[in-house]
Each structure stands twice: as C-alpha cells, then as structure tokens.
Design goal:
globular; single chain; alpha/beta
Length: 187
C-alpha cells in the first residue's frame, strides 16, 4: 500500500495536469450527481466547503443552491472546525487562505443533515486522506449527518491508508462514479 505522503504527491501531480475545461466539467458532473442524490434532496441543512484552487470547485454549486437550502461553511478555530451559516457578504480569507464565514452564530454539527467533505483521496470504502491536519476527522467523529466526499476520478484510489482516528464518508462522488460506502465502511 502507498503511504500517505506519496499518495498526496501523486494526487497533487495529477491535479497540476488539469486544464480549466477539465476542472469545470468535473465539478459540473460531480454536483449534478450530488443534486440528484436522495441525501441532498432530503437535506435542509448542508455543510459545504469553499474549495481551494486544486479541489473540485464548490462555488457554482453554492451559488446555485444557497437560497433554496440552508448552507453552512466551516471556519478554522485552533485545531477544530466551527460551523457558520453561509452569507456571501460575511466572508473573509481565513486560515490556510480559505474563504471562511465571519460572525458569532456558530451552530452545532447536530443541526447539519449533509456534510460535503473535501479530501486528497478516497477509496471505495469511504476512507479519506485529508491534507494531514485532522480537521474533518475531528468534526466527522461528532457528526450524525450523512457524509459525502467529492473528488476527481483520479482521486478515487484502490486503498487509502486509514488509521484508527480516520473517519470514512458514506458516499464518494466523482465525475464517473457514485459510490455508497455505508455497508462497507463500518459506519
């Protein structure tokens, strides 16, 4: 099995080879599948993330749905993520150069119905490799929400090196796959 560092480097190299048209097409395909999923259709409160330039773009999806669903975004607070309502007028560049919400209206993760999760890589069991800080693992271990990982096709790998504290997602969505991992991930 490939180690986490090597897998991160491999995925980074693949992302660097994408052109803008490929990035847009991938995001369109992924979020078209998300929109058709029962998990999204039934969710009222959705925790999204503001994508970094090398991630599947969430911006168009957020713009399209934020007036029809209650969208929330994470904000880094120390070693944890706080959850705040999405409001385009209350955003700023926060930790790790990620656009984050401002304000004091933090909500509990129990209010969230669906969490759309970023990662460097996923496997078909829902195991995810993050960027190495553990923010989402700490959040997901407290969540009862349905969790959905979104990624490029090349981010779906045979096996992600998982540790005891790593939290798998229920679904993995790529441009060409929609994988229900609920029965195989142990969650």
């Amino acid at each position: 099995m490939i180690d986490k560092h090597s897998l991160r480097l491999k995925i980074k190299a693949c992302k660097a080879m994408l052109d803008d048209a490929e990035r847009i097409a991938a995001a369109d395909a992924v979020f078209a599948a998300v929109e058709q999923s029962a998990a999204f259709m039934m969710a009222e409160n959705v925790l999204m993330y503001h994508s970094l330039p090398d991630e599947i773009s969430t911006r168009e999806f957020i713009d399209r749905w934020h007036t029809r669903k209650h969208f929330y975004l994470p904000r880094v607070n120390g070693v944890n993520l706080e959850i705040l309502p999405y409001d385009r007028s209350r955003m700023h560049i926060g930790a790790f150069c990620i656009e984050e919400p401002t304000g004091d209206d933090v909500v509990d993760v129990d209010k969230i119905d669906l969490i759309v999760v970023p990662a460097v890589a996923y496997d078909r069991h829902g195991n995810r490799l993050g960027r190495g800080k553990g923010f989402y693992d700490r959040l997901l271990c407290e969540a009862r929400a349905t969790t959905m990982g979104v990624a490029y096709d090349f981010q779906l790998v045979d096996e992600v090196p998982a540790e005891e504290h790593d939290v798998a997602v229920h679904y993995v969505v790529t441009p060409s796959a929609f994988i229900n991992t609920k029965h195989s991930s142990g969650r």
